Protein 1
Amino acid sequence: MPGNNSVIDVNLDPLSERRRRRRALLRIGLPVAGVALMIVFIVLIAIYSTRANQSGVLALSDDLLNDLDGRIALAVASYLDPADRVVNIARSILHDQAFGEERTLAINYGAIIVIGVPQVEDVLFADADGNYLMVRHGESNPFDVKVVRSLPPPRRVTWFHFDASGKIIGQEDDPTDEFDPRTRPWFIGAAKSDALFWTGAYIFYTDRKPGLTVARRYVGADGRPFVFGADISLDAISKFLSSLQIGRTGQAFIIDGDGRLVASPTGSVMVKEDKGDPVAARLDELDDPVLTRAYDEYRVEGRGRHIVDVGGRSYIESVTPLANAGENWSVLIIVPQDDFVGFVASNNRNVLFMSLSVVAVAVLLAGLLIRQGVRADRNARLLADRQHALDRQSAAFASIAADASVFDPAQGEAPRNLTETLADLAAARRVGVWRLAGDRILHLEDSFERATGGHTEGLELHRLELPQFFLALLKGQPFEAADAARDPRMAEFYRLLLQPFGSRSLLVVPVERHGAVVGAISVEDGAQLATARNFVLASANMLASHMTAAPDAVGPRGPRAAATPAESAKTSVRSFSAELRERGTDPETLGAEIYSDAAVMVLRFTDAVAMAVKAGEQTHCLSNEIVCALQEVAAQNDITYLKIVGQEVIAAAGFNGSGAGSPGQIADAALAMRDRCIALFEDNDQLQAFRIGIDCGVAIGSSLGSQPRVFNLWGEAVHAAELMAASALPGTVQVTEAAYNKLRQDFLFRSRGRFYAPGSGSAHSFVLAGRL
């Protein structure tokens, strides 16, 4: 019977154990707590230092960004201011004469500007009639002039190329040029008022590069508007923005009031097509999550300084208006916060690493202190354990010495005191003493199970069943395995004896006399076997005289008187018969016959070891008590057929031809036998290692053999009853659907479900609970 694996040492002093644990806690806990407190203080100091430094650095970064905003605004204004003045001067000088006699003056003025002012890409003059004059940088010469004359017709577009002295070195007409200044954004915007007008970013018509234009109108005496303008290439502004150093990775952008890019440090601001021409993109159209988040923040919060989080990283966003440039332009600065405070975290990490080196030294010292303390405690505990083991062994020797009959060859009693002493000393689940009869049979002298306090004896193991175990035993050397199921020497022994009890490890010590193995001691699941091993070996040596005192013919219960010839003959006749009861079934008179209404019960025992356990203090084993109960139940219920075969008992009724009452007889017998078996197993502290099955149907009976002739029963009913017994729950009676239909009026059932029978398919089965 499986027991609990836990072992409680009753000799252990609880007060001493608590003192030992308190001492171990002080030896280990104090150094660990000291190191832990040191680490906590270092971490708290690091956190405080980081936050304080970050706050200071962010405050400084605000001042830095304010200064940077002012510097960028000033630089942009200074960069764009020449274009502003170029337009104002041209308006003041030329008025409405740029296309008349003063055209030469306009060309000379424009040439001076495009050569002397690098920010200005082109100088523009246009009127309301579509006349246009543009002075620009030449590709291989100092400057070129484009003249569009709309009035008087016909319309003509002419390019003039000038050298450094202002002399025309080339001229050609371009009839394919359909440029009309009146459709351009700088002309349309400037023509609406006398104020200075700034365009957003757009594509220049002539060289197809992105840029912006500043323009201003002049209204002539006749009311016709004239517009003067200057183009500024975005490449120049982008180079200026990219030259700004903002932290390590910060960037500056110029945007208008709608969030559209005017200038970018990357130079790529034209991404969106509008009627075939690229136009300036908004910040959220650049496929940059940081700029998209900044644009959303700008739309909600407007200008100012904000902290935005993108992908778990913080960015400082600053939007500052450009007061002297553009139409509602602003400078947008995006810089990662780590660019300002990253060095603080880096410095703190360095300080933390240096602090951790101090902690590592403290941990090392604490570890050495703990190791020394633990080693001292362990040595003290080992000494105490050894002393305790010696005390236990001394007590064990005293206990055995008090019972001198254990090793007395003249005594035939089982060595119960020895098995109990060994089990307690080794804290083992079970200890057994075996006697070897010849070299073929192991006889169990006594087995003690510590969990239940029960003794077992009389079991015999044959060499044919355990060939590897016998081979290892007869070598005369102790052998042991932590997992007997995996050891080839013990696997067979494990399946028969250890597995039903839940044991796993096994120590086998042979008992030798004059160099020959005469027995063995088996110790299962010894929790304290290390300290008890020598005592087990000594006990095996002392058992040698006890083992050899009994001859091989002695049975498990001492020598038997010689049987009389009559008894021997009677025994030899009955040894061939398995019948326990045959009332009404004389083997000499019955021939082969089919019984269509037979009721069959099969009682199956599932634990061979349990059947060999002694029944209380009686001299018979449990199986004998069960068989006697079977015979008594069969007599009470008029069961005519009862036979035992191995671990199965077969009972049957219904041989008289009618079969009307046979199912009830078998059911009553099954219930009575179930109750008797449960009581017998419980009295012997065993699990319910039996199952019962019943079927009603066709069976075949016949007398077999010569002398003595035996009556045998087989067929479908017997087979079905065996299936029911094999699949029943332990300690229950399971019946087929055929038996249920015959018994349901008088007996109480519960459904078990369906089972599959080879050759006949699936059918319902039921559990017989009792009689109604």
Note: The mean pLDDT is 77.
Protein 2
Amino acid sequence: MMLPVNKIFLQGLTLAVALSGHLAPEASAQITTVTVDTRAGKAISPDLVGIFFEDLSYAADGGLYAELIQNRSFEYQVTERPAWNSLTGWEFVQRGEGNGRIAVDEAMPVHPNNPHYIRLEIGKPGEGVGVVNAGFDGISVQAGAKYDLSIFARLLYLGNRWGSHPAGAMPLIVRLESKDGAILGETSFEVADFEWKRLSAAFTASRTDSSARLVVLAKAKGGLALDEISLFPQKTFHNHPNGLRPDLAQVIADLKPKFMRFPGGCLVHGNGIGNIYRWKDTIGPVEQRRGQANLWGYHQSVGLGYFEYFQFCEDIGAKPLPVQSAGVSCQNSDGKGDSGQQPMPMEQLPAYIQDVLDLIEYANGPVTSTWGARRAAAGHPEPFHLQYIGIGNEDKITPAFKERFRMIFEAVKAKHPEITIVGTVGPGSEGEDYDNGWKIADELKVSVVDEHYYQPFQWFWDNLQRYDTYDRNKSKVYVGEWAARGGAKDRNTLQSAIAEAAYLTSLERSADVVLLASYAPLLANRLHTNWSPDLIYFNNTGVFPSINYSVQQLFSVNSGDAWLPTKVDNIGKPVEFAASTVRDSKSGDLIIKLVNGAGTAKPLHIELAGAKNLPASATKIVLAGNDANVVNEDGRPPAVQPRESSLVVAPAFDCEVPANSLTVIRIKPEPTR
């Protein structure tokens, strides 16, 4: 069972963290002393632990975005995958001696941004001529649940192609069917116009089925054009139309993230300049949005667009952190490795910079402004309170990048000094791009820079002091993408999760310079995984948080805004123990995090120097396992999960932390009289 969100809010203490070392085998029973000075401390970022969303491994379409139809607007292209075309995901059917043809057309589209649609020509209706869609690996429906259907349709004038054109309207039947043909829900329409009209209805599923399909059948002789065929569960996260899958969104919300970075990732700067993610293409009515190829090798409908991202941030209490390209494409464009970066032509830069400025207006502007009015028209007159914006994503730091980044940075800073700009220092934790990125940050005095690193689990133990020596007068740091990799196929292991927990204690200790951090990737469809490891896995019927998810959740839920000096004795090599203490000024709760990466339990003596008003007991949450290499099994909850109990506490008390464990001790002070 997943750990329920801790609802105690923190207040008034200040924390600090230090590291302890590995005990020699002959001293394994020796007690380690952890001393916390509750009288001192420093302010740290209360926004440290957040999330990063990228449409990778079918995280959006077929994932968080609740649309059940695949390729709903017939925009899949061979340029996205060699085997794809506009009819991918669809099957042409002629039932009961029905006879007809299907073709893809773009002569009179619903909208220029959505150019392709299908033509059905019915010579003999039989029991129906039309199309079938099985969604993303089957459409999962629940008995008694309601589903909203919408279709754009118009009549076609066929001349004498099938004889004389029929008089009157074209009957259209739409069904939810099981694989064996059982009808799970049905509705009907009459298409009577030669102009595009949106048809809508609702189904109530008659039974639960994880592999249903949608069937659209024309029932008379003639011609019909169809586009934007959509099926949505009525119940979405917070019941928003065009919303999010509720179970998947809730598991993300349960992380209690302090911010959310979106929409990427590498897809932001894209596979070449023409594939840069353009936020204006993702807002407005869905049939007017411009989908495009995803850098990860599939199609993005952008039904989950900027409005929906901002709305989700608001729903889960996370600050939005949108990322824009720095005017260059991904250096891996066209599979060329570091040589594939393409710069945007300079004559295009002014318009692109205006797009970035317009995004800030869309998020924060009044309803009387051009883009604030567009936000209000979407149903949100209040601003989204944008505070951060990212420019660039782990780019190769070339002269072309530097020139374009400077132009965008200076324009945003001049027009919106209230916005914190997050820059980038390349794709790694060190090297030429990292060094050159920091040189630009120093030169321009960039407020925050984004560091990325995916490393073997031991790297995180070896780098617990990485940020201790960073200059506090220079740019602050956002660790925008990070995760411990290792083991068979880089799967999620307890070993990697505990290494990440140890590293998070160091980020808390240095949260006066590391303002933000987000594990990556966030989501992965079990059947379409581009990258491992990931934080949350899912399929059409279930959501499976990883062991690493529990670590991120424990740190986010038990975060603070002050760091207290924590001293640990017996520091040795290799380092297999880490500790951190934080306090939240809102509740006064003192939160001690203890990470034991050794294969044996560690007895501790904890001293809370200067502590007053301590309760008789505190809450203790332990994530631990006997085998550090334990992994998540596909489709099952993690074998290792947090367990909560109580712990007797005093100004000095003893406890033991298990092998391969993260222990969180939360102490709520007694009220003063």
Note: The radius of gyration is 28 Å.
Protein 3
Amino acid sequence: MALGVKSMLANTAYIACALLFALQTLAQAAGERSSTTAGANSSNDLQRPGAPPTHVEDTRGELDPQALEAAGLHIGEIVIDNGDVFDPSIPAENHAIFRLANRLHIETRPDVIRDQLLFKPGDLYSANLTRESERILRANDYLFDARVEPVRIHDGLVDLVVHTKDVWTLNPGVNFGRSGGENSSGFQFEESNLLGTGRSIMLGYDQDVDRSSRQIRYTDPHFRGTWNELKLSYEDNSDGKLRELSYKQPFYSLATVRAGGAGYRDWDRIDSRYNLGEVVDKFRHLEQHVEGSAGWGSKVANSNWVRRISIGVAYDSDEFQTIVDPLAATSLPEDRTLAYPFVDIELLQDAFEERRNQDQIERTEDFYAGPYLRARLGYASTAWGSDRDAVVMGLKAGTAIEHGDEHKYSLLIESQGGARYERGTITNALYAAEARYYWRVSQSQLFFASLSGTISKNLDQDRQVLLGGDSGLRGYPLRYQDGSSRALFTLEQRYYTKYYLFRLFHVGGAVFFDMGRTWGRGTISGPTEGLLKDVGVGLRFGSSRSAFGNVIHVDLAFPLDGDSSIDKLQLVVETKKSF
């Protein structure tokens, strides 16, 4: 299902800026790409209207973070240098329309940025904490990039400047997407940096193949100036309602020693089961989930490993009812109630690296290049309110393998799954694994390949293993093939250009090939089309000014197999977090 082309294409003020400015810039676009654009791309778009404040001596390029740490210096002054959406010091952005956009935009408050730093004046300077603070800041949708820079040494202190750059966060408009031969659309008023506080609020209406939905959501990632995150969500849908509430303090950094919180979800909806892209049957699904936990983290002595352990309790209830519909299911899934305590264990390394043009376009990426493991073990008992005795299991693990200069070759291996052991057998077992390979052919080209697979055993009848246009097989309808297992293979040649469209989008392109199929008897017993293949081409627009989605995909996919009802050309329009 498409996520929708949001924000800048739909934002009224933003589109007006883009269209008016386009008329002025089309004639000089080629010249600007060779001069101003190339320079902007090479510096992460963190140019500023000026140098750091004049009371801080600018010695950039002379202060090595590791040397500062080895010298045992303490932190002196911390200056927040937050750049606006457009930079008037760049000639290509020094236009009335862009200056108006800056005036309409409310900048992130310095205290909001300051509160997310892992250090304060008087602390010992740590190169690791400054790098991790950059990662934390870059994780915010309302910031394009972040840099912590030592600029001056005096009296045993080192002064720091925190450079950040805002993006456009107001989205009053419409969205549209298409994948798997189905459209999604909607309109909303969304602000992801309310009054510069980092809070987000959204009022909207969405319609897709499953349902139409009226939504309201509110998120405060730093409730009352803490690391506690508050989320509230309510949806009045065409097939029911969704209510969600959570309040938690996550493991926000590698040095976090305590975490915990609680969450609640109540979702009344109609679920559909598919085969060959068509709905086979439907039923009502009443889902409730409640979970609370507390966790502790610590670094493993004499290593860069971090260990986290959480204990908690969870309650899961799934009730299924028949509906009045020509496609109403004649056989309903079995109701389930699971109440259980659990233990979570997580192991990971301090192995983050900065990349460019890997899964994004001209954007700093915090790439995890180490191994990790997350596991959950719980026990549900009738004595605690469950309708059965069961061992609940979950696992997620992965690693990265790299070689060559400047990480020319990278292989990422990830896997995750879960199951229950009940009544003497494994049930609802689902395990998926994926290998992603990156070959950096040149600064402007990257070859990408992925191989993923999923296997299942005794799945609950409300779950399916599906493959189609919404799960990577771009030339086919969504949810096209059903089975007990599946595999998907993708080849993609990616191109990164120097085009900076209207100073709003970095432009890239791709040529791709997808191949996949399902095997075995799925939840729905129906015909299968065997091995399916498609080829295609696409454009990528990397959003450098908006908080709503990082990369817009526009693909033309040509199916090479399948039944005669499939369109010979599939248009796919999506907003994704990666290339």
Note: Residues 1-61 have pLDDT under 50 and may be disordered.
Protein 4
Amino acid sequence: MFETGQVFHKLRRASASLCIGVSLGLVMAVPASYASDTLVGRAVLPAATFAEGPTSGQQLGADPINGQSVPFINKQPVQGFSAIRDNGDGTFWVMADNGYGAIENSADFNLRVYKIRPHFKTKEGGSGRIDVKGFIELHDPDNNVPFAITNEFTRRRVLTGADFDIESMQKAKDGTLWFGDEFGPFLLHTDAKGKVLEAPIPLPDFDNPGREVRSPQNPFSEEATAVRIMNAVRSHAKSHGSTKTPVFSPWEVMLDDGNPNTFIDNRKEPPTGSGLKPASSEIFNVTSIKNAGYLVVTWTVNTKERMLELMKLGVSGIISDRPDLLREALKEFDANNDGNPGGYFDADGLVDIKKFDAQGHRGGRGLRPENTLPAMEVALDNLMSTLETDTGISADLVPVIDHDPHIEAAKCRLANGAPYTTANQVLVKNQTVAQIQNPSTGFICDVLLPDRPDQTNNLLLSPVTEAFAASLGLRPYVKPTLQQLFDFVAFYANYYKTGAGKNYAEATLRWKNAERVRFNIETKINPRGDIDPQGIKFSDRTVDPETFARAVARVIIKNAMLDRADIQSFDFRTLLIVQQKFPQIRTVYLFGDFPVYADPNIPGSDDGTNLQDEDGENTPWLAGMFWPYRSTKLSNPFRAQRSGGFEGMALTKDGKKLLPLLEQPLTGSDPKTPTLLIHEFDIESREYTGQRYRYVLDSRGTNIGDFIMYDDKHGLVIERDGSQGDLNGFKAIYQIELNGHDQPVKKTLAIDLVNIQDPNGISQPTVPGDVGTGANLAFPFTTIEDVLFFDTKHIGVLNDNNFPFSVGRHVGSGKPDDNEFIIIELDTALGKN
């Protein structure tokens, strides 16, 4: 085992006798300018280097990337090094960053710090390999991270690249580790084994007192929270054996659609006395959520114009009160952008569920009284691919098709004609199915609502319902059970296949669709603890979550509908129970914002929200997961750019302060002088001191890669452009000197990383087609994110290879970049040390 000092003794001996004699035949590409700094050591970790699992890269698609098959089954790639620490014994800790470059594709990339031992190739020899000796994994078993993480519901709570984008690392005097994150940006503090010790520390916005500097991926903003919630519930489902990814189902007015006309007035400008802040409609980004692996099925859309707009936006499905209009929109939409409408239909002329999900909301409540068999019939008549419906649980624990905890007087009447008003309406959970469906004393739910002008209860339009109800001795507008709904759909298929409707013009389409139609079944349960107008606690109006979930799931299983029926809810407790107890059933997570106003007399107040908090506490609907209600870019604008948070982070020589450096300028900065900010953070007090330094980018630079200090005032910064494989690109290391508060640092070019002398052929041999090797070595990588100070004449540099994406070295072969660790001897020693 070599001590670091021994390694550098050998490196210095090698560099003392360097010569220029290198065969030009070995050179693939040599810059014309003369390089004065010299390569004295190099070690390479092959791109396809892996550590133990779990499976990673599942959101990278199914096609190979630069020759690499994805995903990586039962293993994690050892890649993306963005920080390095010297252990002083010939080994180094190297920190992997967030994984695959985005919050959307990195939920299965575990955040790790690997211990490596390089065997540098020098003039005197050496294998040039890098051994991986183990790793620590960042984890949060004490729940110090206050927002939803991918592994939210596990005991160890391992952190992933969808939780934090760590880009820098330092070790404090007490042995604990500090990480700089880009998503917040945050400082993350762990013990020496990676266990999180305290809540992530945000960056105050000193230009706007009272605010934080936030990026678009900040988890304390609504815009960045949906993906995190969905990652958490997907991970929970998988941990219980589910192979079905949960579905994301948002209210359509909350989509990031670029259309200000879809913004509901009382959300944009809440009524006086409501107690609510203005909302932002730009919350749910369809592309982002789909890229994270989730179907986006939005509700409730009732105009053809809006349906077509959302199809163009890329939603995976639409839930509508008007199945007739949704069918028309599907026929008109050019899904393939080839000039031919109707691309969402299959060879049979039915909606292809793999391409789009057309759902009839409560059957077709814009055309028939909701959640009734006639409503389901009209949805089937319009060939919806899914019947969406609600359920309540009766006194005898039977799922009943019902939207409200009460049998609503506004929608139902008593069969015997007796008065039935809101004053005497009953709870579903207090009635047996026999009581609800009794032909004489039960309920008939055929009341037409004034706000739905196209509704009709004309039974001449519901022949299948009439025939089915007659076979059971029931009224057509009875409140059906879930079992009866399944039976009705089977009856409907036979009616058009072999029964009375077999000669109807669309009979074949109808029975074929009915035989495969899906069911989206909602558990109508409310966890709020306050009291409703009838004096009943909202959470007491229905059965408990587990009883509810079990009752619905059992009917699905009994009818062998595991592949045709989903369970959806605004109350995520029921969905987690389904995932745990019945993992074969897919779950659908409903997101909405029906405000509960401070003054209940303000029209529009609704107890059914699942994002709003309750009495100042976090929302009770999301099973304990945090939602930053109405904290958006309106209230705290995104001043840090996407991927513009903490990239480099130095530790002062005395070990008392951290100096995190933003990767890109804050929004609102002068674009003519791109300037990054260095902030000073006091480790003992856990506070930013307010001291800042300015780092002005070179005219060729787009961002920085790393930042370290090697004495009280001097440090090193990697600066680069966005090129790769380009020997005319800009990749450099600057020596900097800190000046006064808010003053630009003094910069001096220390190393040109595309022009390093290699007279001893240390970078040889190479793969045919490689660039930047030979008499001169170049580091032509898109990301170079690790710099290490050994002494004033020797600097270490590593690239972040962005596996499997970046191809900066192996341009000819197209192979992904390796992790390269080089040692450079400077022609001119660094300044004061």
Note: The longest strand covers residues 687-696.
